[in-house]
Amino acid sequence: MDIDLARSWVQAIAAAVDQHKDYLTQLDSAIGDADHGINMHRGFSAVTTAVANMEADIVGAVLVKAGTTLISSVGGASGPLYGSAFRAIGKALDAPTADPQQFAAALAAGLQSVQKLGAAAPGDKTMIDAYAPAVAAFQLQVDSGGDFAAAAGAAADAAKEGMRATTPLQARKGRSSYLGARSVGHQDPGATSTALIFRALAETVAR
Amino acid sequence: MDIDLARSWVQAIAAAVDQHKDYLTQLDSAIGDADHGINMHRGFSAVTTAVANMEADIVGAVLVKAGTTLISSVGGASGPLYGSAFRAIGKALDAPTADPQQFAAALAAGLQSVQKLGAAAPGDKTMIDAYAPAVAAFQLQVDSGGDFAAAAGAAADAAKEGMRATTPLQARKGRSSYLGARSVGHQDPGATSTALIFRALAETVAR
Amino acid sequence: MKKLINSPETVLDEALAGIAAAHPELRVDAKNKVITRADGTIRAGGVALISGGGSGHEPLHGGFVGPGMLTAACPGEVFTSPVPDQMLAAAQAVDSGAGVLFIVKNYTGDVLNFQMAAELAAEEGIMVKTVVVDDDVAVQDSTWTAGRRGTGATVFVEKIVGALAEQGADLAAVAEMGRRVNACSRSFAVALTACTAPAAGKPGFDLPEDEMEVGVGIHGEPGRRRDKLRPAREIVATALEAILADQPLAAGDETIVMVNGLGATPLLELYVVFNEVATALTGQNVVIARSLVGNYVTSLDMAGVSITVCKADADMLALWDAPVNTPALRWGT
Amino acid sequence: MKKLINSPETVLDEALAGIAAAHPELRVDAKNKVITRADGTIRAGGVALISGGGSGHEPLHGGFVGPGMLTAACPGEVFTSPVPDQMLAAAQAVDSGAGVLFIVKNYTGDVLNFQMAAELAAEEGIMVKTVVVDDDVAVQDSTWTAGRRGTGATVFVEKIVGALAEQGADLAAVAEMGRRVNACSRSFAVALTACTAPAAGKPGFDLPEDEMEVGVGIHGEPGRRRDKLRPAREIVATALEAILADQPLAAGDETIVMVNGLGATPLLELYVVFNEVATALTGQNVVIARSLVGNYVTSLDMAGVSITVCKADADMLALWDAPVNTPALRWGT
Ligand SMILES: Nc1ncnc2c1ncn2[C@@H]1O[C@H](COP(=O)(O)OP(=O)(O)O)[C@@H](O)[C@H]1O
Ligand SMILES: Nc1ncnc2c1ncn2[C@@H]1O[C@H](COP(=O)(O)OP(=O)(O)O)[C@@H](O)[C@H]1O
Ligand SMILES: [Mg+2]
Ligand SMILES: [Mg+2]
Ligand SMILES: [Mg+2]
Ligand SMILES: [Mg+2]
């Protein structure tokens, strides 16, 4: 991964969020407050602008900028969580390029930072349920010799599976937890946007 | 007409209003504020109670009482208007009985009092459009030798016709006048309750 | 019908009991349905102000009873004017001998019932004058109608006249000021939804998802015409056009402006509307000297807004600023 | 969607412009989205109170900025917590050196964003303490949830703590009082209709004509359960049962009670509800020492009501009675 690829990744996320904005909001309408698509859209639109012409000499600079921008523009629960994730990922990538092993470690640092901030565990029906398996799948591919594209593809698939697996869960964190048993049967909006983020990574890397 | 008949008349009005309450409200909903049935029902329920056990030695006492009770319990436009009408009718009947000629004059006094208070002319789409033809028809029957029952029957028919004739009119008085041309095509609620009042008279007298 | 009530028949009595429980500064005469100030009435020799009208417009009128505003309010059944007995009882309760001013919104029912009350009060030796409020420019030609409706300007009349009465002005002066305030006030309203009167049980009219009623009153009746729903900016332009056509305003004129929610409109939206009104008026160099944004003259659960503009002179502005201490309007000391 | 707006994207900016135009006593920083008092900030050496949250709950929080209550408010997008930059800008604008108290409703988003702001402010050398309000007993077991939501008690905390700050108490004392008020306050809400967020464009949920959502929050989300619509008396019984189960009240206890409309509920109905609350509590010899009935913490155009009960001690009652001068709450001198 290099600086341009990092930039392409966040731009690809922005495009995906733009496309799936109403879907994310609709998911959040069922078990939340009907703003997740709007929040993500506001955030990644700002990110696109922020990273467009920025000078960067390390990969992480773009991602730290993305994270900081998310924090400053999203609000809600997802803003600080995704913002910290991208900041942590970026901080771990302090060179002009990153190899798959380094990127795996960075993704893990991002996950850790979300969990530190939000205190959610796997199974709580949050973005963690897509993020954690994605990180694990990425690492597994890298460890078994897979290249960046293979790792990112595996991560995207795992995130999607994790996202799907949130449907039968009862939420224990975030706004949907207020619904108690009524949160069962709905897919988590944050897990869904996390799946978009990893799919965007896979597609960017594969290009 | 004697005291018992007067009492029976207002009780028959109360019964008719009770039966047609929702219909009156529905008519008022189209071109007014959806309370005419409720208003009339509140008023004539109070009248029923008020005249139930009252001592009276003249016919008018019952009707004055009815009018005073309407004023004290109805509110809205119809309360003072019907209240004054019944008070005026009652004041004109200061004997234990009244013959058809006397009753015709009393009805006319009632009409005059409504017009003095409300300043509506025939054709303004108000209760006047049922009341005025009823009074005229009653008088006509009496003048041509008809008995009380015939006169009351003619009045009821005329009131009903007058009520029907309000439908194509544009309102110029009361709340429905605010609708301008949009009031056209709806039957006036007050003309409808007036028709009920004269029908109740005809049925009471015929019994 | 979705309402937080026990039964349509008991709404008014129970709401009055709630008002009594919530506002120790008010006294609620449940039998006569009269709301007065708990601390007696008014200062000795002062003119008493009595208003009233159908319920369903809260905080009007009960919420405006208190020092600097009304002396008494007479709530009728929902959307039905009160009966004369109420106003008579109120007048008897609060008259200091200096007389009472009836503040009446121009509806046939209200006018007739207050008129009967005035006659009854006169028979009891109480001096009565009446101000009829008729500010709604949606109702145009009074030879073809019952005359313009009384709506938002009622708040302006009650506040300004209340301050004058508090200063000890006599009945004639108080009534004259009421007429002046009314004469320089205009209102216009639009509704996005119909309201549901508890006893009627269903909305007063059906309104498609993309339409609004233009020129509505405050009793759930349809307006002058139906139109496609438009952006706030265009709605405000329509309302101001009607208001200014009837009462032109010149550069430098000072106004009191109320943007009033009809019941179900979020305050957030009322501020959006006020922004449009302010932009439009200040664009013509008209000064918004004072303003109210909120729910003051409602129409149960109707979604919509009314805009009232009063071209105020210095006297009126000074009286506006005078202290007022009521449940719904409170400032100064 | 029926809204008096120009576009979903511009609602917040335009509403803030409307607030600025309507309230000369407030200063609205449109760029940073911060509302402060126009007359500078607070008295020298005083603790500043900053609150904020998603928009759509007006008058909360901007309507509570003023002497005796908040120093600044940070409105987020509709139903979305503000971003840390807003609270940082607010803290920088109003800190007198005595520190700022963040009053935060307990939602993951609000808590995280205020937490980040607190870190940023600390880096700027501003002392910050935070009170998290979590009064909603509809959310029960915090090991299974994000913890109880913050709703109506926010008004109590802001008012009482605002009075204490005005008296010159230091940051620790002010924060401690905030925690005390929160600890003795409980809320419960029901909704008769869903609300529609402008950007979402349609109601958050479908609710049949004869059903209600029981135990809702203030963000348009469905409640704990759905139930048949019931008379006000039974709804109040359900709410008080939940409140009293969590915070028992004994005969003689003094309370501050708020019956709060969620946005589209007529004041007439709120008084009916308050009457039921008053009847129930006084039936148990619990004293309603102070009360609020009206729209204070709304949920856009949701029809429904929340009931908040604070078991208040003498300090709290005295602070409650202290003067307050904000757009939405005003009394004393
Ligand atoms: N404590 C948490 N840890 C991780 N993710 C969380 C947490 N709380 C909420 N989320 C995620 O945030 C998503 C909601 O984001 P969003 O709708 O933007 O914010 P809000 O809930 O404040 O409206 C949820 O679907 C969930 O995946
Ligand atoms: N000026 C008037 N003269 C005669 N009848 C009138 C007048 N104004 C209104 N009405 C009658 O009153 C009826 C409405 O009565 P009601 O609904 O009880 O009162 P309100 O209009 O105050 O709600 C109208 O249908 C009309 O027949
Ligand atoms: Mg959300
Ligand atoms: Mg009517
Ligand atoms: Mg009526
Ligand atoms: Mg949100």
CATH architectural type of the largest domain in chain C: 3-Layer(aba) Sandwich
Number of helices of chain C: 8
**Mean pLDDT across all amino acids of chain C:** 95
CATH superfamily of the largest domain in chain C: Dihydroxyacetone kinase, domain 1
Choose one word for the global shape of chain C. Answer: globular
CA-based shape of chain A? globular
What proportion of the residues of chain C is helical, as a percent range? 25-40%
Strand content of chain C: 15-25%
Q: Which spans of chain C have pLDDT < 50 for at least 5 consecutive residues? A: none
Task: Describe how the helices and strands are arranged.
The complex is a heterotetramer, with two copies of chain A (207 residues) and two copies of chain C (333 residues).
Chain A: H1 3-31, H2 36-52, H3 59-73, H4 78-91, H5 100-118, H6 128-143, H7 148-165, H8 189-206
Helix pairs in contact in A: 1-2, 1-3, 1-8, 2-3, 3-4, 4-5, 5-6, 6-7, 6-8, 7-8
Chain C: H1 11-22, E1 26-29, E2 34-37, E3 48-55, E4 72-78, H2 84-94, E5 100-105, H3 108-123, E6 128-133, H4 153-166, H5 171-183, E7 185-191, E8 211-214, E9 225-228, H6 232-246, E10 254-261, H7 267-283, E11 287-294, E12 304-311, H8 314-321, E13 324-325, E14 330-331
Parallel strand pairs in C: 3-4, 3-5, 5-6, 10-11
Antiparallel strand pairs in C: 1-2, 2-4, 7-8, 7-12, 8-9, 10-12, 13-14
One magnesium ion (MG) sits between chains A (33, 35, 76) and D (79-80, 109).
